[in-house]
Amino acid sequence: MVEVRMANDWKVQLSDEFKAPYFLKLKDFVRREYQQNSCYPKGKEIFSCFDHCSFEQTKVVILGQDPYHGFNQANGLCFSVHKGIPFPPSLRNIFKEIQDDLGKPLPSDGDLSRWAHQGVLLLNSTLTVRSTQSGSHQNKGWETFTDRVVGKLSEEKKDLVFLLWGAYAQKKGSLIDRSSHLVLSAAHPSPFSAPNGFFGCRHFSKTNAFLAEKYISLIDWK
Asked: Which strand (E) or helix (H) includes residue 122?
């Protein structure tokens, strides 16, 4: 760890980042962390959000903070967990909002790769974390890397929808050209914040309304 393996156009889009001094320093840090501590997600899943959703395919971006730091929860897609893993509270609240917004029932699993394959980039601001230690890999270089991802999407694509939930995600809003993209902000879906503006935000129906207006295929938020 950390070898960058991406199976699609993201590797070309981000090639300059992989050679940048900050990223080389970040690689060394992450490699040591994975050698010396229990960290998440698994090494092969660190860049899963890019593997499941190419640059060309991306039409919606959901920004998270850290990967889940509980055992076997994180799978490289923000808010997502592997099949068979109980829903973390934030994910359960996301599904509750979808149910209230669109009338869809709670799904049987929390694997959001089904969204990613439709063009939803599920991007955490920090792509790794030490077990049980939230925020343990912040301010090591990941934020610079994910800033560049958001900036490149904003600069080179048009008519994207960015969903920014919570103050941490909303910091990246300054990188987005709002004349070219739709930015929707709300409280974080965690149990502490969801009643203060996430519940009732209707971001899922608003996203599809915008995509329909632009003649872009809709997301099935199943």
From this structure: strand 120-124
Catalytic residue among 9, 16, 28, 66: 66
Strand partners, 182: 161
Residue labelled with tokens 């092969």: 44
For the stretch 50-54, contacts whose Cβ atoms lie closer than 8 Å and that sit 24 or more positions apart, written own/partner, are: 50/6, 50/8, 50/10, 50/121, 51/6, 51/7, 51/8, 51/76, 52/77, 52/113, 52/116, 52/117, 52/122, 53/116, 53/117, 53/119, 53/120, 53/121, 53/122, 54/8, 54/9, 54/10
- Which single residue is written with the structure tokens 């991007």? 123
CA distance 165 to 167: 7
pLDDT in tens, 42-86: 999 999 999 999 999 999 999 999 999 998 899 999 999 999 999
Farthest CA pair distance, the chain? 50
Which amino acid belongs to residue 57?
Q
pLDDT value for 7 = 62
Show the tokens assigned to 17.
């980042």
Query: pLDDT at residue 1 above 60?
Result: no
List pLDDT tens digits, range 82-134: 999 999 999 999 999 999 999 999 999 999 999 999 999 999 999 999 999 99
Is-catalytic flag, 109? Answer: no
